[in-house]
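Hi, here's the filled form for the chain we discussed.

Project: internal
Contact: R.S.
Residues: 215
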Amino acid sequence: MEAASLLDFSDFFEQLAAEHTEDPCDGFGLAHVKRVGDLARKIQEQHGGDWAVIQAGALLHHVGGAHETAAAGLEVAERVLQLFENTQYDDSFANEVASCIENMTLAQHSQVKTREAQVLWDANQLEWLGMIGLSRLFARAGRLGTSLFGVDASIAPLNDPIEPNPSSVQNMVFYVMSRLPDKMFTETGREMAHQRYEIMEAFFARAQAESFTQR
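And the returned structure, exactly as it came back:
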């Protein structure tokens, strides 16, 4: 059965996401997966890939949990396989979606192989960039109790932004997020990533200027 030919798959995936995805205030819930879906659509329109697989991966990559670590990705993939049981979707489709979800985190970059997985990886990482990316990093800092400003090159860059680490938000931007644009698999993702990273640089340039005027 061809996944792309199935009727009403958009409504089905959106319903599953709404029923099984938490919506915390730190940028990792239902609103996040919908934004990833919108970004993935823009990329897919330029670079191809099975939209049914891509949309399912985007909307379902946080079912039952709100973390974005490699381990959490494996857990979510298992939940997604269970959700697809006894539905119109065959094992081949379910396994493809689950495989994409397993490899959507920054740490799994080297495991991304298919066009669908590439589109999803790019879309998911774009959420760490720009003003939305800053908002998510500020939420992370509040949860972990880390500072907002300060650059310390001695703190090793993370493989995954959500990992506990004493890095400030500014450190995360300059030593982790700065690597994302060149890691993008698609030209569209790369262009969007560079634009969003420039916004982050401008934010900290402005913040530094304000700190000097207050002295």
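Let me know if anything looks off before we file it.
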